[in-house]
Design a protein that fits this description.
The structure holds two protein chains of two kinds. Chain A is of the alpha+beta class. Chain A is 43% helix and 11% strand. Among the domains of chain A are: 166 residues, no CATH class; 117 residues, no CATH class. In chain A, strands 1, 2, 3, 4 and 8 form a five-stranded antiparallel β-sheet that branches. Chain A has a four-stranded antiparallel β-sheet with strand order 5-7-6-9, sandwiched between helices. In chain A, strand 6 and strand 7 form a beta hairpin. In chain A, helix 2 packs across helix 4, helix 2 packs parallel to helix 15 and helix 11 runs antiparallel to helix 12. In chain B, 55% of the residues lie in helices and 3% in strands. Chain B is built from 22 helices and four strands. Chain B is globular and about 70 Å long. In chain B, 34% of the residues are buried. The N terminus and C terminus of chain B are likely disordered. The chains are: A alpha+beta, B mainly alpha. Chains A and B meet through helix 7 and helix 8 of A and helix 8, strand 3 and helix 19 of B.
Chain lengths: 421, 480
């Protein structure tokens, strides 16, 4: 691990991404870093003046991972010396966490902590829907998606306005995006129709994106309704009359494919007439029943608590997942479908690549020394830009491109201020 | 009286275009931009504040009792007619000016009293905003329009083209009949965004006319929050004689004592409650939420975070000591290695007993908190079964839990009706009455004196009290 931090971890890129400009600002210096050391020792409220300081400390601790928290009103390392009232979270990227284990009731290929290319498609669909919603509806532009190293994906939104959101506003935004609700004991987890019969426009748009996913992923690839337990769950989502009918039919013919079962549902629901003066008939139209089922099986399942509070810590990009050894790499949402979590470089693979590319001279020299922002060899003779010679390169470049977008924005904002003088 | 300069300093941000100035109150509604700047006698100072406090305290108690907004309106109107009358401009009363002045003074005195702690500020803002809402809704239509025009709310009426683009012809919102939409930054109307009552595009929220009031309330609330913080900062510099401070102290104490939002147990839990007794306790005395958590714990040998939190704090208040709690959870997670338990769970349990971290003495969650916060996600077992279960699961769960205690399927339609009306606490109270009928609890009696369930520990405490009474009477011990 130490070699990974020393030679491969892109501290410079991480810095520019968090800091939005070259010279360190409060965005970096007042930022909390938390380290998890070997043996699950947890160190909170660290902060650093420069990326080199961060690197030095990381190399000294050699943590299994580290997390990034909010920008506080004072330097987090001074927490003990300032009054409680003067120490509060001020700015924080808007973050999201999607975890594959929340999809267990609707996937068949893996369970719990496992993930494969097939169930990655759930994540891919979630990424497309959220990416679109945050850009179109909320107007955010600086979205960084990061594979969490095992079974999930993180999103960091770094727009200035997103950084400034209060906890209350974050809660509201999460409420707007959350569709799947209710615990284990609630069959129908989609309840989004307030008053009217049709879906709210934002969800109608999501539905359009998710309908094909439902067919390809749920019906064909995952064949979700094959087992009795799963198709029983499906039948809880249709009106009682339809449920009885289909239950009998499917019990007689248990091996019917998911697509055929879905066709049965569609036919029966279409033929079904809502009972007159039924209390729930407002929302129980055939179209609504179908839409709600599609959403329940495919809509993004967010871990809402992560996004609601500014002081929530989230694992930094490019950390190594302790169980899988995979690096948490940024992902391009436009090619998310082709991303394969199994092919993400592991720390061992990267170190092997490095050895193969150029055996390090005993003195510790031999690197190119021209990373982003003009990396230099530090006094300790550490390598900064060694990632360029490994398969980590495209991922670091992705983060650098993203950070450049942020720096460009900061520059423009400053220019505007100058002009206004 | 009050040092004028200091008070002025507390509301620097008064907008220049605002019409209402000192000594003139053209509207019944007031955003309280400027503090009163005239001579006020000590007596006026105190009565204005006390009368207003009565109204605010009643609002808080309505919240604690889970009253709906409509019910609250009826109650509060009665109270404010008595203590804080405020008539519309059309009333042409001579007292009009006087009424509004009293309203104005009372508000600012209470600001001074309640700006001092985070908790007081939060409660004051909530109560004041509710009062403003109630007044806004009862305001005369024309007058309200005039009031709205008198301030700059910084909203833009969306052009018909914009609306056409955004709202499909078969629009979803009943409010679309009136086709006016107000455009504001979405961050100004978080409550509407959370409920998806607006259309969002590029960070702007298009608010239908029917929801316009929300923008006003949010503005009022934000305004007040900001001013209170400024007041809190200015307060230490308020060079005041000894006449006011005691009054202010008394006021803030009155607010705190008036209504306890947390349920404080009359019995401090049972002495000597041990981990082995929990199963029996659960069977006899638990409300459905805790029964469900206990059953899930026994079934899965595990509970997720919020489940542990909800159940753990309940157990604490029930009287389980920290050592017994650790023993209880250790045993319950029977499939887990000691090492993992000690690393990942021990700290949290100790934390909830105030032995780690910031060492806060956490109260057990009230029904309100269970209903409103931390909506259970998939795989979670916490929450309120009456609210978070689907209808058929709730029925079968209730029958499993309580059929030994006298609950039958004949009782279900009544319970389910209450659930459908979203009166979850009423449903829970009714179940309590039915399951404790053999101990002489009658319908409508609730958990004593007609009160309904507002806290799981209250449910359990009352249940144990009834059992104790029964045993104390020398009767045969009833085993449910």
């Amino acid at each position: 691990m130490l070699a990974f931090y020393r030679r491969l971890y892109p501290f410079k890129s991480l810095f520019t991404w968090l800091n939005h400009e070259h010279a360190p600002t409060k965005l970096f210096t007042h930022r909390e870093f938390a380290f998890t050391l070997q043996g699950d020792v947890y160190l909170r409220y660290n902060s650093f003046a420069t990326p080199d300081d961060l690197k030095k400390q990381v190399c000294a601790y050699n943590p299994t991972r580290f997390e990034i928290g909010p920008v506080y009103s004072a330097r987090p390392r001074d927490k003990k010396t300032v009054r409680d009232a003067a120490f509060s979270p001020q700015l924080r990227e808007l973050v999201f966490d999607i975890d594959m284990s929340d999809y267990d009731p609707v996937r068949t290929c893996c369970a719990a902590a496992d993930i494969c290319r097939r169930c990655w498609q759930f994540i891919a669909a979630a990424v497309r829907v959220l990416d679109r919603a945050l850009r179109d509806q909320f107007g955010y532009t600086h979205l960084l998606w990061v594979y969490s190293g095992r079974r999930g994906i993180h999103l960091w939104v770094s727009d200035r306005e997103a950084l400034e959101l209060t906890d209350e506003q974050r809660r509201a935004l999460v409420g707007w995006l959350t569709v799947i609700q209710g615990g284990k004991e609630m069959h129908k987890k989609v309840n989004v129709r307030v008053g009217g019969k049709s879906l709210p426009p934002s969800l109608a748009q999501a539905y359009k994106m998710l309908e094909p996913v439902f067919h390809e992923l749920i019906l064909e690839d995952q064949d979700v309704f094959a087992s009795e337990e799963r198709w029983q769950a499906l039948l809880h989502l249709v009106p009682d009359a339809v449920r009885e009918k289909l239950k009998n039919a499917w019990e007689r013919d248990p091996h019917r494919a998911s697509a055929d079962k879905w066709q049965n549902v569609l036919d029966e629901v279409d033929a079904w007439k809502p009972p007159a003066r039924h209390a729930a008939s407002q929302t129980q139209t055939p179209a609504a029943i179908k839409e709600d089922i599609v959403l329940q099986y495919t809509y993004p399942r967010l871990d809402a608590e992560v996004s609601k509070h500014r002081n929530h810590l989230l694992k930094a990009p490019f950390c190594v997942h302790p169980k899988t050894g995979r690096v948490c790499v940024p992902v391009d949402p436009r090619t998310i479908d082709r991303f394969d979590p199994g092919r993400v470089p592991t720390v061992h693979q990267l170190l092997r690549e490095l050895d193969a590319a150029a055996p390090p001279a005993p003195s510790g020299g031999g690197e190119t020394g021209e990373g982003v922002g003009g990396d230099k060899v530090t006094a300790a003779g550490e390598h900064h830009a060694d990632w360029e010679r490994t398969s980590l390169k495209p991922y670091v470049e992705l983060l650098d491109r993203h950070a450049r977008g942020l720096m460009e924005e900061t520059r423009r904002a400053k220019q505007k201020m100058d002009l206004s003088w | 009286m009050i040092s004028r300069r200091e008070l002025q300093a507390t509301s620097k941000d008064a907008k220049p275009g605002v019409v209402q100035t000192h000594s003139k109150y053209p509207f019944r509604l007031n955003f309280y931009d400027r503090p009163p700047v005239e001579e006020i006698t000590i007596e006026q100072f105190e009565t204005a504040a006390l009368d207003r406090l009565r109204v605010l305290a009643e609002i808080e108690s309505c919240f604690a009792r889970n009253r709906t907004f409509e019910e609250m309106g009826k109650v509060i109107v009665g109270i404010w007619d008595k203590y804080l009358p405020l008539h519309s401009s059309t009333a042409h009363l001579e007292r009009l000016e006087e009424e509004r002045r009293k309203d104005h003074i009372g508000h600012f005195v209470l600001r001074l009293a309640f700006c001092r702690s985070e908790d007081l500020r939060r409660r004051f803002v909530k109560a004041e905003t509710t009062l403003f809402k109630l007044r806004y809704q009862s305001d005369d239509h024309n007058e309200r329009e005039k009031f709205l025009k008198s301030r700059d709310f910084d909203w833009v009426v969306a052009s018909p083209e914009e609306i056409q683009d955004l709202i499909t012809p078969t629009s979803y919102d009943p409010a679309s009949k009136s086709s006016t939409y107000y455009k504001v930054k979405w961050t100004r109307v978080p409550d509407l965004v959370e409920k998806r009552k607006v259309v969002l595009k590029g960070g702007m929220a298009y608010v239908p006319a029917a929801e316009q009031a929300s923008i006003v309330y949010q503005e009022f609330q934000r305004h007040l929050e900001k001013d209170l913080e400024a007041t809190a900062k200015a307060l230490p510099r308020l060079d005041e004689d000894t006449r006011l401070i005691p009054i202010l102290d008394n006021l803030s104490k009155g607010f705190q004592a008036g209504i306890s939002s947390e349920w404080a147990g009359k019995t401090e839990g049972q002495e000597g409650l041990t981990a082995d007794m929990i199963d029996e306790m659960a069977y006899k005395h638990y409300p459905a939420c805790m029964r469900n958590l206990h059953m899930a714990l026994r079934r899965d040998k595990h509970l997720k975070h919020f489940g542990r939190l909800q159940y753990g704090l309940f157990l604490k208040v029930l009287g389980l000591s920290i050592d017994e709690a650790l023993a209880f959870w250790r045993k319950a997670f029977s499939t887990m290695q000691d090492d993992k338990f000690n690393k990942e769970y021990r700290y949290n349990i100790r934390h909830s007993y105030g032995l780690e971290g910031k060492r806060a003495n956490y109260a057990a969650m009230s029904c309100q908190q269970i209903l409103m916060s931390h909506e259970p996600g998939s795989g979670d077992s916490h929450g309120c079964p009456y609210r978070h279960f689907s209808a058929d699961n709730l029925q079968s769960a209730l029958l499993t839990m309580y059929s030994d205690h006298g609950l039958t399927s004949q009782d279900m339609p009544e319970i389910m009706h209450m659930v459908k009306q979203k009166h979850y606490h009423v449903a829970c109270t009714r179940v309590f009455e039915i399951t404790h009928a053999h101990q002489g609890v009658k319908k409508g009696e609730g958990v004593g004196g007609g009160e309904s369930v507002t806290h799981p520990n209250q449910y359990a405490a009352r249940s144990r009290e009834l059992e104790k009474k029964e045993n104390g009477d020398g009767d045969v011990v009833m085993q449910g």
